[in-house]
Amino acid sequence: MENIAVIVILVSLGYFFGRMAENKHYQSIREREQAFLSLPTTSTKKPMGNIDHISHVQLVHGNVVISVDYFKRFLATLRNIFGGPIQAYETLLDRARREAVLRLKESCPDANQIINLRLETSSISKGDSERIGSVEVLAYGTAIYHQDSNAQAPIL
Amino acid sequence: MFVTNIEDVPGKTITVCHGIVSGSTVRAKHMGRDIMASLKNIFGGELKGYTELLGESREQAIERMKAQALQMGANAIVNVRFSTSSVAAGAAEIYVYGTAVNVE
Question: Above 0.90 for ipTM, yes or no?
């Protein structure tokens, strides 16, 4: 009986705080994505526009480690019985990816474009008897600065 | 030093290719961070300690790769790739590799 009570408390804590945190995070993601709309980011290997204007290039990256809450883990355990999509995990990974890309952009606000953006996801808690369900998302790409921009001097 | 993850440095030509350079670091998290992480496990959200830890190790791996390239006399590294793997419980290896070249 006590065990069930503990689980119910953990699940409801996870539900309320996890939900609150997720809504807050989504709101901040949307706001910051709006602010960075002017910075084109592509996964192509060739820069857009005239390459003669490029003053320098730089490798940039952004990462985030995000943990799933108790409620979502509980849902996922149920899903494991019946199968089907686990929406709770989908939003978790979506948040993590968008956050990683935003951090990458925030690390080079003066860049004119970012090309060859790559995303890598890894579970960093493997072998930890699945105690911590957390994932790391890394976004990396090449930032391109044009000559006319007021970027800092090339790093050579 | 130019570091890119595309096959060339835009606006420059590759003159000499020196071969593969790489940097790696294995880091373990400390107890305090682990306790915070288990709390976060209930409420969900970002594990800031881990984010910083992995960010720092990645910087270190890049520095090691750059040092190796400098030793070879290269002035750019192209086609850089990252890889992360958990080698043991509570420890992660960050590996970064690329091709050292000379550009003009």
Answer: no
Tell me how many domains chain B contains.
1
CB contact under 8 Å between A131 and B51, yes or no, is: no
pLDDT at B70 over 60: yes
**Domain segments of chain A as ranges:** 2-146
| CATH classification of the domain holding B49 | 3.30.110.70
Residue range of the domain that includes B90:
2-103
- Please answer yes or no on whether B54 and A65 come within 8 Å at the CB atom: yes
Query: Please, what is the Cα angle at A85 between A16 and A11, to 5 degrees?
Result: 25
Tell me whether residues A18 and B45 touch, CB distance under 8 A: yes
pLDDT of residue A125: 63
Using only C-alpha atoms, what is the Rg of chain A? 20
What CATH superfamily classification does A2-146 receive? Hypothetical protein apc22750. Chain B (3.30.110.70)
How far apart are the CA of A105 and the nearest CA of chain B, in angstroms?
15
Q: Could you tell me how many CB contacts below 8 A there are between chain A and chain B?
A: 132
Burial B50-68 (b: 16+ CB within 10 A, else e): bbebbbebbebbbebbbeb
